[in-house]
Amino acid sequence: MLESNSAASQVPLLKVENLKVYFPILGGVFRHKVGEIQAVDDVSFEVRRGETVGLVGESGSGKTTIGRAIIRLTEITAGTITYDGKVISNLSAAAFRPYRKKIQIIFQDPYNSLNPRLSIFEIIGEALEIHFPEMTLAARRDRVAELLGKVGLKRDHLDRYPHEFSGGQRQRIGIARALAVGPEFLVCDEPVSALDVSVQAQIVNLLQDLQEELGLTYLFIAHDLAVVEHISDFVLVMNDGKIVEAATAEAIYENPQHEYTRKLLSAVPKL
Amino acid sequence: MALLRVDNLGIRFGAAGEAAPAVDGVSFEIAAGETVALVGESGSGKSVTALALTRLLASPPARYVSGRIEFEGREMLQLPERELRALRGSGIAYIFQEPSSSLNPVFTIGYQIREAINLHRPEIKEVTGEIVRALNTVGIRDPEKRLNDYPHQLSGGMQQRVMIAMALACRPRLLVADEPTTALDVTIQKQIMDLLKELKQQSNMAILLITHNFGLVADFADRVLVMFHGRIVESGATVEVLRNPRHPYTRALIECVPKLGQKQHRLKVIDYAGIE
């Protein structure tokens, strides 16, 4: 965590207030709304610059929906999301676009989050073409090669295709893609859940190194409390759309208050 | 006589002279009622070994280049197809990692379990009762109501329970569980492992658990086999191997398991170069 006494680091980088994301259930011949799934139900939290906030819960808890709502992959039903002091949840798509350079996402499934028909250079470089149109092809190739180096891959991987890489390598490519536009805030949506335990360790270490090197802020979403405890400064425990406990990583382990947190802790396989 | 005996098994893929063998001189035994864990990372050859036990590998491209697999004294690699099919399901049953791809999406779960029972236990007359019993054993509530559910209507954890029910309904002597919990949340993983533990105690069924996570092995397996690059690099009683891992790869795998309450500066990673 970055040490800073300036006032700037006291204003949270991300602030989520009373967030609700409800999905309608459609039924009947005319498919009108017959009910709703309250995926995220009145959630509030803050993330400070340089911090890693872990968001833990099982499938269906709403944690992934929160991550997707922050980067506008999912529409929100109510509530406010504020980034660096400015409300972003009510912006038009065009007004939000510049924020896509600042807030990026790493997805869970390394096998399904890379376009199989694009080369690694095209996958990582796509965002550069959109956000930095003045860059030449050569400049883009250099930048992508630099990013590959940062995530532990090589320049000659540029023209290969996703199927030629392992799960852990594909996840690294996903990280490089997220970093391409120079973001400050990364939503990490279960980035290691689909990987072998041994590879998880590599990717978690990589994320921590990058955080230190680039001054990144993370919202780390996962269902495994052991991994979250390791990487996070602060942990939010979610169940059924609500935050049931929020505390520092140490406090969550040493003194879990909520019964659900205790259940998550006891589920971690131990040696 | 051991229930299963694998002796110097070698399997290669592709044309002769190409690439390293997927399985290279693997030997191990499983006794009736024993629980053995086969631990290794992706690509170690553990799943190929498991599939080989009932010749489930598409061959070509798989080639059995050496060794024997003896199940209840019968040589699996020589068995005629008809006898092999009779053993699949009733002698050796499988559950796989992705229940959603192992269950047929267009048939109800009741239908699929019935199919398995009809095939391997034709002596059962009251099949519906047997299906309900199987679903009860795996902890599915209101099993009579679930009979007409389709797989997509169930959660991942429930789908896996159905898979286990299907496998158990045939009363196999050996259950091969290939990463049965990898696709599931930790809490559901714990439920499924607890279920397998219960089943282990209630029957004389042997279990071969295949996993990349040493954390699952501790509480579960009597013995553990560690696989690396197609070879078994260490084997022994679980308690012993955990307490005293001899091979550097075993040690590295054990250290990879993130430990709660011991926040480290960096997680330990495996230094492959140091192992070869």
Counted by DSSP, the helix tally of chain A is: 9
Would you tell me the structural class of the helices and strands of chain A? Answer: alpha/beta
**Which strands sit side by side, in order, in the main sheet of chain A?**
6-7-8-3-9-10
Helix content of chain B: 25-40%
By CATH reckoning, the class of chain A would read Alpha Beta
The Rg value of chain B, from CA coordinates, equals: 19 Å
The CATH topology of the largest domain in chain B turns out to be Rossmann fold
Say how many strands of chain A there are. Answer: 10
**Low-confidence parts of chain A, pLDDT < 50 over ≥5 residues?**
1-8
Radius of gyration of chain A: 19 Å
The named CATH superfamily of chain A: P-loop containing nucleotide triphosphate hydrolases
What is the CATH-assigned architecture of the largest domain in chain B?
3-Layer(aba) Sandwich
- Number of structural units classed as domains of chain A: 1
**Termini separation of chain B:** 35 Å
- Note the run of SSEs of chain A as H and E: EEEHEEHEHHHEHEHEEHH
Identify the biggest protein-protein contact and residues per side: A-B, 34 and 36 residues
- Global shape of chain B: globular
Could you tell me the strand content of chain A as a percent range? 25-35%
Please identify, by name, the CATH architecture of chain A.
3-Layer(aba) Sandwich
Level of helix content of chain A?
Answer: 25-40%
Question: How would you describe the overall organization of this protein?
Answer:
The complex is a heterodimer of chains A (271) and B (276). With 271 residues, chain A is an alpha/beta fold. Chain A is 34% helix and 26% strand. Chain A contains 9 helices and 10 strands. Chain A has a 6-stranded mixed β-sheet, sandwiched between helices. A 4-stranded antiparallel β-sheet of chain A has the order 2-1-4-5. In chain A, β9 (234-239) and β10 (242-248) form a beta hairpin. Chain B contains 10 helices and 10 strands. By secondary structure, chain B is of the alpha/beta class. In chain B, strands 6-7-8-3-9-10 form a 6-stranded mixed β-sheet, sandwiched between helices.
